[in-house]
UniProtKB/TrEMBL annotation:
<keyword id="KW-0812">Transmembrane</keyword>
<dbReference type="GO" id="GO:0005739">
    <property type="term" value="C:mitochondrion"/>
</dbReference>
<protein>
    <recommendedName>
        <fullName>MOZ protein represents a chromatin-associated acetyltransferase</fullName>
    </recommendedName>
</protein>
<feature type="region of interest" description="Disordered">
    <location>
        <begin position="214"/>
        <end position="252"/>
    </location>
</feature>
<keyword id="KW-0496">Mitochondrion</keyword>
<keyword id="KW-1133">Transmembrane helix</keyword>
<dbReference type="GO" id="GO:0016020">
    <property type="term" value="C:membrane"/>
</dbReference>
<keyword id="KW-0175">Coiled coil</keyword>
<keyword id="KW-0472">Membrane</keyword>
<dbReference type="Pfam" id="PF07798">
    <property type="entry name" value="CCDC90-like"/>
</dbReference>
<dbReference type="InterPro" id="IPR024461">
    <property type="entry name" value="CCDC90-like"/>
</dbReference>
<feature type="transmembrane region" description="Helical">
    <location>
        <begin position="192"/>
        <end position="213"/>
    </location>
</feature>
<feature type="compositionally biased region" description="Basic and acidic residues">
    <location>
        <begin position="218"/>
        <end position="241"/>
    </location>
</feature>
């Protein structure tokens, strides 16, 4: 920094300065980037002498020139910017084309893989359908076999049931016939006994009725004889019984 300030004291006019490597960045004659007179005046009014103010103004101008030189060295020209832009655009175009080509290749690869997978899926679907048809046929055959077996078993069970029913019916019919015969003989016996009893009772009743009728007839005959005797005697002899006589006396 001290070397830069020392060089400021021996700095000449702007036209005596040597041009840099880029003449386009060299300022024209007596062209400053700030108001040097106003700066010197303000410094002088601030308490600095004219020499000090001029020296400080030159130092500021030297620093500004140094910074401009540094900026000139580091700046890029418009042609370089255009070249870089063109190269960047070309690189972007190449990258875009490469990306598109890669996408197309990937799409084609994916399409081929999808076609291959679709083909495998179709093959698996056909195989599965064939296996399902075979399984359906096997299940249907097994079902039919089982149905036939069940029918045969059912027929055997029906025949066994019919045999058992026939045996039971035969046993029941034989037992019922024997029981019916026994009951019939019992009923016949009871009917015969009943008929005999009724005949005996009827005969007894007839005999009793005959006896009663004969007794009444005899009583009537006796009464008729007594009345005839009473008529013959004229009421002289008493032929009434003791109870009849007692009743007559009580009535008198």
């Amino acid at each position: 920094m001290s070397d830069r300030l020392d060089s400021v004291y021996y700095m000449g006019a702007p036209e005596s300065l040597s041009s840099s490597s880029t003449p386009s960045m060299t300022p024209p004659k007596y062209v400053h980037h700030f108001d040097t007179y106003s700066l010197v005046k303000q410094l002088h009014e601030g308490g600095y002498s004219s020499d000090q103010a001029t020296t400080m103004m030159k130092a500021v101008r030297a620093l500004l020139a140094h910074n401009l030189d540094m900026a000139q060295e580091k700046l890029v020209s418009k042609s370089d910017v255009e070249n870089e832009s063109y190269l960047f655009s070309a690189a972007c175009s190449e990258l875009s084309a490469e990306i598109k080509n890669n996408r197309r290749a990937q799409d084609e690869q994916i399409r081929q893989q999808r076609t291959h997978l679709q083909h495998e899926v179709d093959i698996l679907t056909q195989t599965l359908n064939q296996e399902l048809l075979t399984l359906n046929d096997n299940v249907r055959g097994a079902f039919n076999d089982r149905k036939m077996t069940v029918r045969e078993e059912q027929k055997g069970a029906d025949s066994a049931i019919q045999q058992i029913t026939y045996k039971i019916s035969i046993m029941l019919s034989s037992d019922s016939k024997s029981e019916i015969e026994g009951v019939r003989w019992i009923l016949i016996r009871r009917s015969v006994v009943g008929i005999l009893f009724m005949a005996i009772v009827t005969l007894g009743t007839i005999r009793y009725a005959t006896y009663v009728s004969h007794k009444r007839q005899r009583e009537q005959d006796r009464k008729k004889k007594e009345e005839e005797e009473v008529r013959r005697d004229g009421g002289k002899s008493d032929r009434t019984s003791a109870p009849d006589a007692a009743a007559i006396l009580a009535a008198n």
